[in-house]
Amino acid sequence: MSTPAHNYTEDSIKSLDWREHIRLRPGMYIGKLGDGSQPEDGIYVLLKEVIDNCIDEHVMGFGKVIEVEITEDHQVTVRDYGRGVPLGKLMECSAQINTGAKYDSEVFKRSVGLNGVGIKAVNALSTFFEIQAYREKQTRAIEFSQGIVKYDMGKPTACDEPDGTRICFRPDPESFTAHLHYKLDYAREMLRFYSWLNPGLTLKLNGESFKSKDGLRDLIAAKLTEAPQYPVIHLDGTDVEVAFTHGTGYGEEFYTFVNGQHTTQGGTHMAAFREAIVQECREFYKKQFEPSDVRTSIIAAVSVKVQEPIFESQTKTKLGSTHMEPNGRNLRSHIINTVVKELDNYLHKNPDAAKALLERIVANEKERKEISGIQKAARESARKAKVHNKKLRDCRIHLDSKDKQREESTLFITEGDSASGSITKSRDVNTQGVFSLRGKPLNCFGLSRKIVYENEEFYLLANALQIDENIEELRYNKIILATDADVDGMHIRLLMITFFLQFFPELIRAGHMYILQTPLFRVRNKKETFYCYSDTERQRAIHKCGKNAEITRFKGLGEISPDEFKHFIGPKMRLEPVMMPEHKSIKELLTFYMGKNTPDRQAYIVDNLRIEKELDFNEQPGALPEAA
Fold first, then answer.
1. In whole angstroms, what is the distance from residue 511 CA to residue 477 CA?
2. Are the beta carbons of 60 and 107 closer than 8 angstroms?
3. Fewer Cβ atoms within 10 Å of its own Cβ: the N or the C terminal residue of the chain?
4. Which CA distances in Å does 420 have to 234, 487, 500, 560?
5. CB 468 within 8 A of CB 475
6. CB-CB contact of 68 with 204 (8 Å)
7. Which one, of 383, 427, 422, lies nearest residue 409 by Cα?
């Protein structure tokens, strides 16, 4: 009789306390960990969890200012001026799971943080966490480290501070990474959204203020990167608020919210709005438009209030609720009925806007029909070329599959065969595909979408991504531009970003596009090898390896062997997200950088020209080049 490898006994059953469980499985509570280089990284979820509590206070009518301070050593302080946590319950609210006031629907009727976990997760995942409440001229504070009490003031003491709560924390490198850092741009964007969702509330980040008067109207105005086809339409019904307009570009752009929570992955409310606007346009204009003709180039914000929202993850980025309230009111039907009713009233009262909307739909329809023949020919050509398409080295798992690794699906877009060869040999064949460009792609600025189907390379790329019609069936979660860090490589990056900005901007808006950071130097001795992405890192490596260090300057991806390359595209891969420009017109931006040479661009180049002094790093290991 064989002996089992592991005995399953009473001793195998373990019970973890709240802090141990959070620290053992942090992904269950805050999603992705990360180092702060991506907006979805866990350290921003910690910040959001703290601010959410302040927002809930404001929504209930208490506190008009929230102050956030983020220091260079990654310490975060958040102070609100609400009612303040009851002093006698300070310990329970910060260190006892499933404890909070939000279970009482009369106290917090439309709250996001319903499970009493958020602040406890921040506490457990911080090397330093202090909570201090001010209430009726009394205060009490408790300090923790990794969820363990380090100091408790005990009895409240007198103070002159206004009512409210102050939370200060420093994320724990043990749970995240030693290189964690807050990007203030991501924190600013978070506070902007809070201000747009809460008109009249002032949020401050290191002294910089964010405040909105017109809410969702201000959001749409800020996100427009081109002149709208008509003034922003604002609809406000029971527990449903919508603002939208159309631009002149391609794709669909949605910003969705539940109880003030930014649901970046949409969900029930976004699907309902997309259905509602098509339904109303068909009824109002008495024509069965194609859904894509109605929605192409739309930019919309949808905000709903739900009494007990159900999210598809602890980080609350996608709404899964089908009902608005415990009494069973159907959420999807309510949103559709509200949008259809309010939009119908608006279009009847505003004939100019109704005319402009119709013109946009008809223009979309005309363009779709113009390229339908080209699409058919391109698809036939792609089918014939698919077997022989040597430019695509596909992976096994894709975003549109049901595999648990679907979020890791990646397509590297490379230049030339040498770089493609290194990545292809060192990639993870399950989740990483490679698309190799022949050279510099066509500059598509100013061209119509027909070029996507007429240019073989562009169409094969769009076909590989599965986005030639829309991005709903996108096959890869990450699209990574992997080019050399030289002039030609930078130019190829610009040309590819131009292609995606021009025809598939929603890919960039949704955070799918990145630039691969590869090391500039390798510094090593007989015992250690360091790969350095900057001169600062190179200097540190030289210091560790000593004066006899061997220093190699990588000038292209093809120079990096496959054995080395696997380190740069593995779990610790360094990526720089491609982000939409804030408050800038896509058309103006592309005209400046990718249009014909203009005096403005020539003047910009002259004013910003720097000369990089070429150095032989092997002969001068301690020297630093001039800033390029």
1. 9
2. yes
3. N
4. 49, 18, 21, 11
5. no
6. yes
7. 427
Reference 477, options 485, 467, 469; nearest CA is 467
Host H or E run for residue 84: none
**CA distance linking residue 138 with residue 157, whole number of Å:** 5
Task: Confirm if 229 and 359 have CB atoms less than 8 A apart.
Answer: yes
Q: Which domains does the chain have, with CATH numbers?
A: 18-210 (3.30.565.10), 216-367 (3.30.230.10), 389-518+565-593 (3.40.50.670), 519-553+596-628 (no CATH)
Alpha helices of 60-135 — where are they, by DSSP H?
90-95, 118-124
Q: Which two tokens stand for residue 447?
A: 């061209």
CA atoms of 202 and 199, how far apart (whole Å): 8
Q: Which two tokens stand for residue 378?
A: 């391109």
Alpha-carbon torsion 501, 271, 227, 293, what sign? positive
Max Cα separation, the chain? 86
Return the C-alpha torsion angle 562, 566, 567, 568, nearest 10. Answer: 90
How many Å apart are CA 241 and CA 265, to the nearest integer? 18
Q: Read off the pLDDT of residues 113-167 as tens digits, 9 standing for 90 and up.
A: 444 467 888 888 889 999 999 999 999 999 999 888 999 888 899 999 999 999 9
pLDDT in tens, 430-458: 999 999 888 788 888 877 778 877 888 88
Strands 76-80 and 208-210: unpaired
Surface-to-core class of residue 136, CB atoms within 10 Å of its CB (0-12 exposed, 13-18 middle, 19+ buried): exposed
- Among candidate residues 593, 584, 585, the one with its CA nearest the CA of residue 490: 593
pTM: 0.71
Q: Name the helix (H) or strand (E) containing 151.
A: strand 148-152
Q: Which residues pair with 514 in a beta bridge?
A: 480, 577
Which contacts (CB < 8 Å, 24+ apart) does range 521-526 have? 521/551, 521/552, 521/553, 521/554, 521/617, 522/550, 522/551, 522/552, 522/554, 522/564, 523/549, 523/550, 523/551, 523/552, 524/549, 524/550, 525/549, 525/550
What mean pLDDT is predicted for residues 78-97? Answer: 85
CA distance 218 to 194: 12
Amino acid symbol at 168:
C
Q: Which amino acid appears at position 490 of this protein? A: M
Who contacts 607 (Cβ-Cβ below 8 Å, separation ≥6)?
none
Do residues 261 and 316 make contact, with C-beta atoms less than 8 angstroms apart? Answer: yes
Tokens of 70: 């983020």
